[in-house]
Amino acid sequence: xxxxxxxxxxxxxxxxxxxxxxxxxxxxxxxxxxxxxxxxxxxxxxxxxxxxxxxxxxxxxxxxxxxxxxxxxxxxxxxxxxxxxxxxxxxxxxxxxxxxxxxxxxxxxxxxxxxxxxxxxxxxxxxxxxxxxxxxxxxxxxxxxxxxxxxxxxxxxxxxxxxxxxxxxxxxxxxxxxxx
Length: 180
Hints:
Blueprint: H1 3-27, H2 39-66, H3 69-75, H4 82-97, H5 108-133, E1 136-137, E2 140-141, H6 145-179
Antiparallel strand pairs: 1-2
């Protein structure tokens, strides 16, 4: 990786950490900045981390077979992002569909608003960079595709949460009707 890219990533990490710390108290209902999960959620999240870890390992094992020199040149620095780009959605989706994604003390509405804004902002940054610098630059894909990916991932997470909440509500209504 070149020095400018490393500096940009370092700056983004610092900005993200500052935002997470600043917004964490706003997202949680109590004075704690730490998310709270029950034992069942912790066990499911642990299985989700394990599943994502093994998916990342499998992807990393197949990468030398699937990625040749031409593909590596086209992907550029994005080649290092591929295993994570597959593992993160696996973990998040697993946790969502097993009711272990949302913390017990989370202010859900504030978090959803933040996720929408962050998703749209990432897509805006990514698409504007692609528009100004092009999709392919010096034979490699624009690294700002990561921003587009993160924006799309946040929107997909929100859609999954909406679908999961709708399914849960329907099941709750059916349970209430069967009890009556």
